[in-house]
Amino acid sequence: MEIDKAIRECEDSRLKTKYTNAIYVIQRALTLYSIQEVALSFNGGKDSTVLLHLLRAGYFLHRAEESCSQDVVGENTFPIRTIYFESASAFPEINSFTYETAATYNLQMDIIRLDFKSGLEALLKANPIRAIFLGVRIGDPTAVGQEQFSPSSPGWPAFMRVNPILDWSYRDVWAFLLVCEVRYCSLYDQGYTSIGSIHDTVPNALLCISNSNNSEEKFKPAYLLPDGRLERAGRAKKQLSSISNGLKFKDLNSDSVLTASVIAVGDEILFGTVEDKLWSLLCRKLHSIGWAVSLLAVTRNDIDSVAEEVERRKSTDDMVFIYGGVGPLHSDVTVAGVAKAFGVRMAPDEEFEEHLRHLIDEKCTSDKNEMAQLPEGITELLHHEQLPVPLIKCGNVIVLTATNVAELDLQWDCLIESAKSNADLVLMAPFVSKCLATTLSDVEIAQPLSKVCLQYPDMNIGGYRGSRKGPLIIRFEGKDLTRIETASQSLCQNFLSGAFSQIE
């Protein structure tokens, strides 16, 4: 069989391992279920194309083992029922490729023009299907919580989901297609890296070839994408004033304020052994881009403690920043706590492991595998050329790995630069402030200050002292400097001239 031969003869040891594991899953399914009880869900995309050819090889090998002779197995024999959900919003190239593939490999096609759930209900009612092969990979939105064999979700028709390529990466998919030299949809040669509907899919801008002649843009093929974590960058973002991946997108010129919470993880902070200097710097940086900090919290090095705090804050704030407790030690539980807060498991991330391998090289131990375990299906790696390892983003939670001020400065600068191109962090009008110092007593100033606060509810007005006998500092903070000046004058006019002095 040409697929099996191509893989066995290639020099890519990782691809061989992925192929062997996938074939094992397929053969196990074909042992558990009869041919009449299994089906392939095919949509014309790269993942399902890989799955089709894996199934062809797996069926060939399964029949060969049963008969003890490969001679009795025809390579073009593929009796597994194939399901195709035809959609009016699909690319014409996808439809053409699907039907041409069906003709080439004599696929028994069931064309369904209903929605996925209704179509499955009708299909399973008319046929004795008990298991469906799917091209789901870790990182796909539907992969959360799935194993290689996973029963269908509650409320859906009952069948076994079989996921032979669940642990494959973007790189693995393209390695297979190129090594086996099988045909794939032509859109992938035009810069598309993840294909959905015609309404939400565009060529991946990371593959755009710069053209100084102002002519039509050209793109490199999908297999040249340098970082597989960015394969969905070609899915067009909808401009909605709602939450997208846990982050609210708002008009950057509006007066609205986004809120963030800051969580530090570390028993050493709670014990008073270490003085944390990162939270104050992070607060100042957030204010500089117009974000308000709603909470500062410190949790123990405990998965449940981290999960409880993250779960509370991710639903009340636009963004959560968490640092500390990241690494190979037994006390480094932050990432696992984030996974628990989102209700997902930890799963190996091969591309993150590659970054770790480049960073620690020969110092790798078995612990590196634990460090490469990330929250399944919700993790986005935030890359920057100045970062040795990408930052981890799960929904609206960003995990910072900084352990000192210099590292936080670098990671923050990289985040801001990234935000300008992909909106990981919305940049708003910065907060501005004015501080007045006075020797007046708290009792003297309390009532006039309360009235000013009522007159300017859009502003943060507060008072504090650096020391008990030092001057009282009144701080006016907001986004409109004119309003701040007016508010400070409103307070000053209640007292004799010279009662207040402005300080930096």
Explain what the structure shows:
InterPro entries: MoaB/Mog-like_dom_sf (IPR036425), MoaB/Mog_dom (IPR001453), PAPS_reduct_dom (IPR002500), Rossmann-like_a/b/a_fold (IPR014729). Pfam families: MoCF_biosynth (PF00994), PAPS_reduct (PF01507). With 504 residues, this protein is an alpha/beta fold. It is 36% helix and 19% strand. It contains 15 helices and 22 strands. The chain has a six-stranded mixed β-sheet, covered by helices on one side. It has a six-stranded mixed β-sheet with strand order 12-11-13-18-17-16, sandwiched between helices. The chain has a four-stranded antiparallel β-sheet with strand order 20-21-19-22, with helices on one face. α2 crosses α3, α3 crosses α6 and α9 crosses α10. The N and C termini lie far apart (77 Å). About 5% of the residues have low confidence.
